[in-house]
Design goal:
Layout (H helix, E strand, L loop, with lengths): L4 H9 L1 H10 L9 H9 L6 H9 L11 E6 L3 E6 L13 H20 L2 E7 L9 E7 L36 E3 L2 H20 L1 H10 E3 H7 L4 E3 L2 H8 L5 H5 L4 H15 L3 E7 L4 H20 L3 E4 L11 H11 L5 E9 L20
Parallel strand pairs: 6-7
Antiparallel strand pairs: 1-2, 2-4, 3-4, 5-8, 8-10, 9-10
Helix pairs in contact: 2-9, 4-5, 5-12, 6-11, 6-13
The structure holds flavin mononucleotide.
Flavin mononucleotide (FMN) binds next to helix 5 and strand 9.
Length: 366
């Protein structure tokens, strides 16, 4: 749907939002997707320590919230972790690099949860080579509790505009390859990350990959608790009024596409600092390690009361991003290194938790 110009202006000013919210009445107040958020409440409530640790690990960050992890229990103390290739993102993650980073996040949260329960989780990565499981893990008594684990339930990917003040970031520096606060570099990264996002949205096949992942409102989120969850009173009111639709989001000529672009831009530009994870090599093991480091960084930031959001578009390996990819590499890494993660850091209003599939749906029979 193409919004007439007048309606778009009203939308920008918030008038239509309020009108739509009023029209929807009490409807919007009851739109929390409780079932899809239940895994945040039930984590840890399992007797088998492998299941207990897995129930925490599924809360890990992962690209587009695909949750590609699958676990297979073996014997009494072992498990295999697989990555479900049917959930790949071939357009924006053509080499499965980011999905592998997500598996690294998962393995790190698993390790922390197991340690909390008194077990050392000893993973053997890619025990059958690249095509088999991502890890074989044996739980053995031991493990040292990690203070970062306390932040697992509170961690969120925060896509809000961040406040225009620099937070103290010393606690994050040892965990990141770089923390960038220098005004000229921050300005360059704002432009770079925004331009990369604009390219992703202007490239039909990469944009449609994201649109296909969008879940519009409570009903869709409960039916498919993954992907990009569009929810909350304002967005649901817009949906109810027909002003936020799958068709409109997919159509670059529509007013709601322009609106989404403008909202993304103002949030992304409102960034006081960035954090980076780079690696010397770019093997699957390097990517797993990058994921471990990223989630540790994000958990540490959470502990400091800071918001974070990966901004990955310029790091993605498809032809339309090639120029920005090269620029990002030059700005953020030494020659030969790979920039695995780039994220915004700052103070922001708290973000809502994202949905998760229940653990039971991620288990495969031995
Ligand atoms: C490798 C990787 C890349 C990501 N890239 C982005 C990104 O470019 N933009 C974004 O908003 N979130 C990005 N995310 C965050 C995920 O979308 C997020 O973790 C997922 O939706 C689950 O939400 P949660 O982190 O709040 O639990 C990325 C996460 C990972 C692990």
């Amino acid at each position: 749907m193409t919004l007439p110009r007048r309606k778009m202006i009203a939308l920008t000013g918030g008038g239509v939002v309020l009108a739509a919210a009023a029209a929807a009445g009490g409807f919007v107040a009851t739109r929390s997707p409780d079932t899809a958020l239940a895994p945040w409440q039930t984590a840890g409530r399992y007797d088998d320590p492998r299941l207990a640790a897995l129930s925490w690990a599924i809360l890990a960050p992962n690209p587009h919230n695909r949750q590609p992890w699958m676990a297979q229990l073996r014997g009494s103390d072992e498990l295999l972790i697989w990555r479900d290739g049917s959930l790949n993102l071939p357009e924006t993650d053509p080499f499965d690099r980011q999905l592998t980073i997500g598996m690294g996040c998962f393995l790190e949260v698993f390790r922390q949860a197991a340690a909390q329960l008194g077990f050392a989780a000893k993973p053997v990565l890619f025990p059958d080579g690249g095509d088999g499981p991502v890890a074989r893990i044996r739980l053995e008594p031991g493990g040292r509790p990690d203070p970062l684990f306390a932040q697992v339930p509170a961690r969120r990917t925060n896509r809000n505009a961040y406040e225009d003040r620099l937070p103290p970031l010393d606690a994050l520096r040892p965990l990141a390859s770089a923390v960038i606060t220098e005004a000229s570099k921050v300005a360059a990264l704002r432009t770079l990350t925004w331009e990369a996002m604009r390219i992703e949205m202007a490239t039909p096949r990469t944009h449609l990959e994201s649109v296909r992942m969008m879940r519009f409102g409570k009903r869709e989120i409960e039916a498919s608790p993954d992907g990009i969850a569009l929810r909350g009173p304002v967005l649901e009111a817009l949906m109810a009024a027909g002003l936020l639709t799958r068709k409109g989001q997919a159509d670059p000529a529509s007013g709601e596409y322009a609106q989404a672009l403008a909202m993304l831009k103002s949030a992304m530009l409102a960034t006081p600092a960035y954090a980076v994870i780079t690696t010397r090599g770019n093997s699957r093991r390097d990517q797993i390690e990058a994921g471990r480091r990223w989630v540790r960084l994000h958990l540490a930031a959470t502990g400091q009361g800071l918001a974070m959001q990966p901004v990955s578009q310029a790091l993605q390996e498809y032809p339309e991003q090639a120029d920005l990819y090269a620029k990002a590499r030059k700005l953020l890494a030494s020659p030969g290194e790979t920039v695995q993660m780039l994220g915004r850091v700052g103070y922001a209003p708290r973000a809502a938790p994202s949905p998760r599939w229940p653990l039971e749906t991620r288990l495969i029979d031995a």
